[in-house]
Amino acid sequence: MALRMKSSMFVGLFLLSLAWKAAWAKVQVNMEDRVEVFLGDTAQITCMFTVSDSPDNVIIQWYMITKTNVRLRIYYGNSTMQVVDRGGQFTDKISVNGKGNSSEVVLTIRDVKVEDELEFICHVNGMTAGSDEGRTMLKVFASPDRPIITGEESGISVSNENPSKIGSCEAKNGYPRPNITWYRDQSSLQNTPGEVIVVTLVTKESSGLYTVQSDLHLNVVKKDKDSFFYCEVSYLVPGGTKMTETNKINITVYYPTTSLDVWVESPKGSVKEGDTVEVHCRADGNPQPPFTFMHNMEELKSELNVLVLKDVTRQSNGNITCTALDLDTYEETLGQTELFVDYLDPVVLIPKDTHVIAQGEELMATCNAQSSLPTHTVWFKKGKKVAEGHTLTLKDAVFDMAGTYVCVVKVPSLEGLETTGSLRVFVQGRPEIKKSADPVQEVSPEKPQKLSCHARGYPTPVITWSSSDESQILKVSQRETEDEVLSVVSVKVTSDITAYCNASNDHGTVSISFNLKAIVQTTSSAPSTSEGSGVIIAVIIICILLLAILGSVLYFLYKKGKLPCGRSGKQDLTKPNKGGIVVEMKSDNTEEAVLLSVNGDKKPPSDQGDKYMYVQK
């Protein structure tokens, strides 16, 4: 009995010790709630644990929770071995770092797929210390491709009763599913009954990624013609959310016409007679309706909604009306513009065409042209301005005032509006002949000589030629200009001759003479300049030689005493020298030189000249 009690006590103490030990032995596991990773990257799930008893004898097991909520083991290991379960989806793509004797193990999943987005369990069995487990959710993300937006190519009418499709926006290959939001300008568009309808279509691809397509339907109004539409795609990424916007699109809105704008497109500014006028018409509706043009109640044809009026005149003045017909409502809209054509009538000249005045008289001519605008008049003669204003006055008329006067009338404010007229003025009187520059001329008989005679007057003078020897006049030619008559005669001058130019009209006759002297030609030709110079030089040389010879002879005679004067030079010089010879003599010594003149006078030494002898008879 006592033995039994001892045994029972021993068993009780043993069980109590085990219970006490179990109460104090403990395993704790800590894990992140979620791990986020991009598609195709490597995920690492960390399991941290503590074991209070026998930490070297720990068994680590990893589990996954399938989509059908089934718990499957994928790994088993302790301090001595590591085993990856075969035949599962992670057999070839996971590895575990750390063993049972460590306080941390890491599950590494390579090349993460969408289907790998599962919950993973780390189970730690500490044997006598007990067991514990932790859970981590693996989240997989894939950014979608750049979204694409397309708008409706056909126009959308504001008269449509139901919302019309505006465009479509598509985001491909995103995970989790992207969200699409539509915007008009800066305002987001939400589903509004009867006004805005957004239809979203989500497609899950075989890869597990999502493609989202969103169609916008809208009740358009006229102001939507200037609006821009786009969509915004938002999607999740590890640690947050990103957004991408599409390009902006504009739609074509059809709306009815309420008013018309009519204007003259060409020419710009004022319109003058002879212009080609283009009239344009534009409606404020879209599309542009067909137009009908009326001009002074007459319907005119137009091309491409443009009215063309060619060679307009002042009779083209009036209203131009444009009418537009709305093909939806069959309502007409009118617009109009006023056409005014400026004009300038032909010149009225008084006197007109031609006018004859006598010398000394006065002429007053006027030039006027009716115009719708102020005008300016200028008179020209031979391109030179001679007067300004409507009146031309010629006082004390002379022949220089004869000629053609042109009056030019312009409209300064409108280029191209111009007209002209001309007046031919004749000044009547006795002819005048232009004076010849050289009335006396020496002429060679070898070729004919041409003589010109200019005469003016009114009536036009008649020019005739006469000569002291009519046989020498060969040919006469004559031509008239606006101001004068020119006559040219050819004369063969064989002897001195006088030619006469005679100009005559109803008021008298005038004449002018030309004296022509024939040049007499000798048979021998004159020596050339070089030959004449040679002759002169030869004559000079001969004269010098003769003088030298004469001087030598005189000196020889003087030495021989053959001359009348003695060696002393004191010969009587009081007698006249009938021979008329004047001799200047000088001896070799310092005797006084004596100059003998024809009358025997003695000149002083200062007047005796050179040391040479001059003999003059």
Automatic annotation (TrEMBL):
Its main location: membrane. Residues 600-610 have a biased composition (Basic and acidic residues). This is Cell surface glycoprotein MUC18 isoform X4. Residues 25-138, 147-250, 256-335, 346-424, 431-513 form the Ig-like domain. Residues 1-25 form the signal peptide. InterPro entries: CD80_C2-set, Ig-like_dom, Ig-like_dom_sf, Ig-like_fold, Ig_sub, Ig_sub2, Ig_V-set, Surface_Rcpt/Adhesion_Mol. It comes from Salmo salar (Atlantic salmon). It is a single-pass type I membrane protein. Keywords: Disulfide bond, Glycoprotein, Immunoglobulin domain, Membrane, Repeat, Signal, Transmembrane, Transmembrane helix. It holds the Pfam family C2-set_2. The chain crosses the membrane at residues 535-558. It is found in: Membrane. Residues 598-617 are annotated as: Disordered.
